[in-house]
Amino acid sequence: MKKTIISLLSAMMVLLSTMATSFSFEKKLSLYVGSSSGGQLAAFQTIISKELEKRGWAMDFKIISNCGQVNEMLKTMDKPLLAGWFPAYNTSEDNKCFHQPTMENFLGVYLSTPRLVCGPIGNANFKIVKGKKYNIGVNKGQGHGPILADLAKVIGVDFRVIEYKNSGFIKRAMQAKEIEMFYTTGGLYEHETGKQKCFYGTLLEERSGIAPLKDLLSKPYVYTNGTGYFVSNKALYENKALKDALEKDINEIIALDSYKESLKFGGAFIPDISKQAQLDFVNANALAYVKQ
């Protein structure tokens, strides 16, 4: 009898110890940024880090600007680590930045900037005329020629694709009248405020009169969005209480009017879909960046 009681007490102590590990946590977190310091992804991760601090989190926030280095930390670090990730990192398992998001390690999308086909800045009345040829600016080295060639056939125009270093150079080229149109992650804010006319985009559904490219074309490239999302390491996602508390706080932060306004000004938003649908969208984004 005595041995039975001792055995039961031992079992209860193990159970209580396990429960304590599962339900107790310290609000202490590392958030490391693998993208460049001057980009939109780093800017919004900085905002989220500061907001987490306001909610009592002890933050170790660093802009590493090396996704391969951060990826290695996700695999080896034994303290809770959150990292902002980008779909283009996951085009191949051979990529040093490849880190597959799953429902276990995925903590949601914090911004998504659609790539849009737009007319000139300052001309909200611009129309695409069937049979006409247009110079269209795109980001260099991202392989946007095929989608624009296919779109041109569908809408009955001819696109002469001209590559530029980044969206800033594209906008300057438009101001210099080197191009009449662009296809890049920008233009949504100008379109929605009546300063520019955009026609098609890498959208899940129609937005402000902009048609989703997926409704016209059926290849993976219709989702080459600039999407930022969070992944976590094992030390974070295996601590359910910590992960749940963090997700709750992040969801409150991205629901703030000030956060939404900042997204809007940057031509971004967060798709209003379930977490599973967000994960599917992120993986579709990654597939879209694979050379077609």
Can you list the strand order of the major beta sheet?
A: 7-6-8-5-9-10
Number of strands: 11
Number of helices: 10
Which CATH top level class of the largest domain fits?
Answer: Alpha Beta
Which outline best applies? elongated
Strand content: 15-25%
**Major sheet:** 6 strands, mixed
Structural class: alpha/beta
Overall pLDDT score? 90
Helix-strand topology string: HEHEHEEEEHEHEHEEEHHHH
Helix content: 25-40%
CATH level-4 homologous superfamily of the largest domain:
Bordetella uptake gene, domain 1
What fold name stands as the CATH topology of the largest domain? D-Maltodextrin-Binding Protein, domain 2
Q: If classified by CATH, what would the architecture of the largest domain be?
A: 3-Layer(aba) Sandwich
As residue ranges, the low-confidence spans are: 14-22
Q: What's the number of domains?
A: 2
Termini separation (Å)?
72 Å
Q: Give the radius of gyration.
A: 23 Å
What features would you describe in this structure?
There is one protein chain. This protein folds into 2 domains: 27-114 and 225-288, 3-Layer(aba) Sandwich (D-Maltodextrin-Binding Protein, domain 2), CATH 3.40.190.150; 116-220, 3-Layer(aba) Sandwich (D-Maltodextrin-Binding Protein, domain 2). It is elongated and about 65 Å long. The protein has 10 helices and 11 strands. With 292 residues, the chain is an alpha/beta fold.
Summarize the structure.
This protein is α/β, with parallel strands linked by helices and 292 residues long. The chain is built from ten helices and eleven strands.
